[in-house]
Design a protein that fits this description.
46% of the residues lie in helices and 11% in strands. By secondary structure, it is an alpha/beta fold. The protein has a four-stranded parallel sheet. Strands 1-2 form a two-stranded antiparallel sheet. A hairpin with a 6-residue loop joins strand 1 and strand 2. The C terminus is likely disordered. The structure holds zinc ion. Zinc ion (ZN) binds next to helix 4.
Length: 197
């Protein structure tokens, strides 16, 4: 173990998701030897993300204004709504360039083992949006794993009686995306979607 500031940095980095003790140490020493201007930019970016970023009041995507860039875009269709779990899923679907409607970010998926039920997600807000009558089709783009499937099934049961068309994204390679990135998604989903046999 090291003393003082360098150990504090290693400890903080080690608390980040996906960063093990060895990576934390490697990143800390990289920062120590980096150009001071680069480190200042990193520190500023960290502070700004907490100061400036909030959730869109309409779709709950990340935003720097009351509404996110997608909700503010007048060229997008208001009749199709795509439901995703997290803001990063919005980015993944946007990368395909296949969707021109609006989004709704649930903030997770139904997961009874972790105590996450429908009330913990932004499902009430979704129902309010659907109640406006403007939305004709709902695309359920939750993850193709147990929690995502459970969430999609739950939403389909709730929404179908409202006379709104409900569809589910097929899993597999997103067409038209960056191959390297798409491959990462596919791999990630293959891991997430694995089941005990
Ligand atoms: Zn939005």
């Amino acid at each position: 173990m090291y003393e003082g500031a360098i150990q504090d940095l290693i400890d903080e980095l080690g608390r980040l998701p996906g960063v093990g003790p060895k990576s934390a140490q490697r990143i800390a020493f990289h920062i120590l030897s980096a150009d001071p201007a680069d480190v200042t930019r990193l520190a500023t970016a960290l502070r700004r993300v907490k100061d400036l970023v909030r959730f869109c009041t309409v779709c709950f995507n990340v935003a720097e204004t009351e509404q996110c860039r997608i909700c503010r875009d007048p060229r997008r269709g208001d009749d199709v709504l795509c439901v995703v779990e997290e803001p990063k899923d919005v980015v993944a679907i946007e990368r395909t360039g296949e969707f021109r409607g609006r989004y709704h970010v649930l903030g997770g998926a139904i997961n009874p083992l972790e105590g996450i039920g429908p009330d913990n997600l932004r499902i009430r807000e979704l129902m309010l949006r659907l109640g406006s009558g403007e939305i004709k089709e709902l695309i359920l783009a939750t993850d193709p794993n147990t929690e995502g499937e459970a969430t999609a099934t739950y939403l389909a049961l709730m929404v179908k009686p409202m006379g709104i068309a409900v569809s589910r994204l097929a899993s597999g390679l997103p067409v038209g995306g960056d191959l390297e990135y798409a491959d990462e998604i596919t791999l990630g989903r293959a891991f997430e979607g694995r089941r005990s046999v």
